[in-house]
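It is worth pausing here to work through a concrete case rather than discussing structure prediction in the abstract. The textbook approach is simple: state the sequence, then state the predicted structure, then interpret. We follow exactly that order.
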Amino acid sequence: MDKNLKTLENEVENYLLKETLHETIEGILWEENKTTTKEMLEIENLEPMKLYLEVTSEWDIGTGEITGMQEKTAFGYGLQSHNSTSLTREKNEQQNIEGEFGGLPFFPGGFVPFEKQKIIDLDSIRAVEALEKKDGLEKIPPGIKELIRSKLGINNHEQVDEIDEIDEIQQENIENQNLNENENENENENENDKKNIDIILKEKEPTLTDFESNLNLKEDLDKDSKKNWVVEDQTDVSNFEELIPKLALEFPFKLDNFQKRAILHLEQNQSVFVAAHTSAGKTVVAEYAIQLAKQHCSRVIYTSPIKALSNQKYRDFKRKFKDVGIITGDVSLNPDAFCLIVTTEILRNMLYRGADVIRDIEWVIFDEIHYINNLERGVVWEESIIMLPSHVNFIMLSATVENSVQFASWIGRTKKKTIYVISTPKRPVPLEHFIYTDTCSNYKQGQKKHLGELFLIVDKNGKFQTNGYQNALRALRKKGEDEEEKRIRRENAGNITTKKGKMQPNRSKNKQKLAQSTKKIISPNQGFNSMGNSNFNRSYWTNLVSLLQRENLFPTIVFSYSKNKCNKLGRWMESFNLLTPNEKSQIQEMIHKTEQKLPYGDRHLPQFEEIKRLLVSGVGVHHGGFLPIIKELVEILFSEGLVKVLFATETFAVGVNMPARCVVFNNIEKNDGKDFRPLRSDEYIQQSGRAGRRGIDSSGVVIIAMNNKFHDSSLLSKIILGKPTHLESQFRLTYIMILNLLKFNELKIEDVLKQSFSEFYSQLDAIEKKKNLLQISKETHDIEDIQCIHNKSEEMEKYYDIVTKLSSFNELFSSDQLSPGRIIMTGIEKSHNFAVIIKTKTQSSKLRFHILSFDEFDSENFKLVWIGIEDIIITFQDKIKISTNQLSKANSYSKQNSNQNSDQNQNSNQNQNSNQNSDQNQNQNQNQNQNREAALSIFKKLKQKVKDHDSGKNPFKLLKLKKISNIDPKIIEAYTEKNTLFGSLKDNLCYQCPLRQKHFEIHNYLMQLKTLKQELQYDLSDESLIFKPEFDKKLEVLKKLDFITDDLTIKTKGRVACEIHTCNELIMTEIIFSGALNKLQPEEIASALAFFLFEKGHNRPIYLTAQVEKAIQQFREIIGNIITTERKCGLPVNPIDYFSHFSLDLSQIFYLWASGTPFSQIIRITDIEEGSIVRSIRRLDEVCKKLQVVAKIIGDDSLVESFKKVSEKIRRDIVFAASLYYD
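Step two, the predicted structure:
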């Protein structure tokens, strides 16, 4: 046995020491005699891989003896979540559903790594594949481009970036080139290669033009620019049953065309963006994708912006697909299910932490994708989209949006996936829009109680009905007049005493008062003042609800933008009985079921008692101030048709997918936190879209309850018929995003910034700019060198620099100094010669000059042109004496000369040959000759002046500064510098050179191209990114706070911050490391952390323990230090705004709750709404869970135990009552 083992060891050693794959891969895999310089320049800069190999023994089955060895590449071996972003890495069976600490994300789709994976990369795979080819080794050596760069001494980053740009653009073109060319072609190519190498060796600055002949860049760029990542699908689906005879999921209704189109793409494993009207049936697409994933034995993630919507979908999907799980901040049910419902924040965390579940995902369904517009949370959606791996397909569901194609194009370009946009042309259930007024213009004697009127203002076809609007206005005007007259009479303001002592009304005075009041009443957009038409009174709303009941418009959602008003409106409806006995019994049963989930002491909370009274009347109230379980109770009862009238805030329209027969707007104005403003059209569309139940209603009814402002018809039309949501990027750069991306080096953070929706439109131009850069580089290369007669080509560069500097001094002189007769030298664009000003004018607030100029080396011709002050480089003291008459004629000559051709054409078209016309032509010619003589006279004077100047007889002197008292010393300094520059100009060899003008134009054109090239290179660089300055500053902050090193390696603080998603990551990390929480009891920790979990300030006295007060003081110092650091690094931080996000209002409540105080007692000591308290306590639980992980990372076991105890103490009673949706 020992002998056999020794033999095995020797054989293995000998085998491994042979020249095997190890040495071959680390070497250069190419056949020298077949490889050209061109190929060397084309190859990617790929580093040799570190390859794991498995050596397996071959055994004789009969004897058990070893007969040989076999060496195999072990792809994926040793790859784990902490060292690889590959989907082939090992799974961690102990991993949390959200991933693990320090886990790297899977490499996001659509990106190209700037550094290859450290263990397995493309280079090694290609090398191994080449060894298996029958026709020999691969001709393309890994890393050859880096070799050439090092041999040529190209180390400049800009030079390297330029070649890398070629690599990126031409990657596919390079790989597909035919390397088996005939000998003649090889000889020609070798000659071209030699020339290209010579250029590189000579200039040490390889440009795109240098390689253009080899790489066919233009063709490739054209192909790339025409690549369409989005398709608006209008496919004919009349043969849908033939294409898919057996659906994966059957539906009990006929599918619409948009649903069929989406299903066709899902069957082909393609991504879709479904922008359909509210209640059109977008959920069908989501359900079909879930069923497909189930059939494919893969997994699917559904994500929504609102927890209430996630809960609702969990309930619905659970009934249909059974194996469904849900993960939110405080709930995790069945996380191993094939269908997972998660919040977008959870999905983002799973992606950053590299959760293993991601590799099994086939679809991610983004419901209500238009929520990306949310100012606070929209960035989470962008991050999630950017970070998803390439194997995951997208299903995006949205209400109609204005720019769905552009948004889908961004996703397509980012993820390198074609996105199919599918939309609906119109609502399946049309809407009718009415104004409700509490008037009785059509009321007749003997009718039932008057309940107000509905005036149609927009019909089913979306046409604004002006007559309906005017009728509503007249009805309100009449009611206002009547009520105002009654008020005046009640006041007895017009009564007077007669001589007999009797009271009599002064009718003329009453009429005058009424007329004045009526003027105020009838104007749109003006308040109705005292006429009493405010819609916020009990009779108004009881009449409206009675009207809805009479017209059979239940169920109805009434949107109000105030929680207090929702509560008050609900209380006013207590007297109604809108239910049948059977419906009332069902509601009572559901209430009883809800009560069983609560401790006995919480079953009689005031809020719960009040909602029970309303529900048994058929009325519900829904807003964020309610306890979560109460909101769920209302939602479920409404979905089952048991709540007839629901008063809700606008979050109900976004968070809950429950249509109604009718929608009522209490107001079409809302407070946006700063001021009251009219609703945006997209807000109105979102909320009004809840009206109209598909398959039940022929049309949906939308009612605007006119309040104390009657809005102008144009405003109403704009709101109702305006454009839908326009998707906009809310991307912002967060510290946690930076730290998470710094964890792995395969991706530059700048590349992520570049792929954000905010950069989309600028990146669209990138391909065109690259093409322009190629063209400019080619033109620059083709410009001939200046052939200087002095053999000193550098003189023109000096001359150009002087002229450029001189042109920057024009502002030294006032406009009156630049008067007609002044001799000047024109600038870069306008001939660059001596000239004389013959006229000045102001055009668009800018000075313009009409000049006569000539080339001193071609002194027989002159020209008259208009220039700007920026075209003047030198202004001389010297002037030419020109009479006013001469100036007038010279200017006229220029105008006549410029219009000569057009005048001739007009004359040639005239058919009149009268003597009168002949005389006119003769006079015109005579005038033209006189004008030319005047211009020629000025030209001769100028030429003589220049001749005397050049000969030194009477040299020009620079114009002196106008004498001004208290002149700025900087101007004097500039003037002195200009004199010095002028002297240098005259000393330059080019100044007297006859080829000056030609060479100057060549050099000027070259400099223009270089400037344009620099601009394009900047636009294509990372420095042009919107968030690049902020990114650089935040990196500095992280360095100064010791979260990362100078070389951007994440330190312990940084890794801890990556785990904190529920509050400010920098502040909380600093607090953990400061030890501010270590000496606190669990109740005190809860009290202290409340500082970060509630923003609203109520200015009430707060009672804290001494230890908590000390901790809060430490918090403030830590925050102050962070603010100071950020400001030093150049970030615009306002300390007042920064601290406004923190409040102690819940500190005492958290302390009491953690101490075991019943919820019923807690709500007695505060006016903070119950729903807000519950949400904050649940957030506290999320924070404590994260901080337990953080405490484990830093090895503080006592702190781990403290956070664990906090969670245990607060997780009780109604705050953590089980959701009704989870039954």
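Step three, interpretation. The radius of gyration is 41 Å. The chain has a mean pLDDT of 78.
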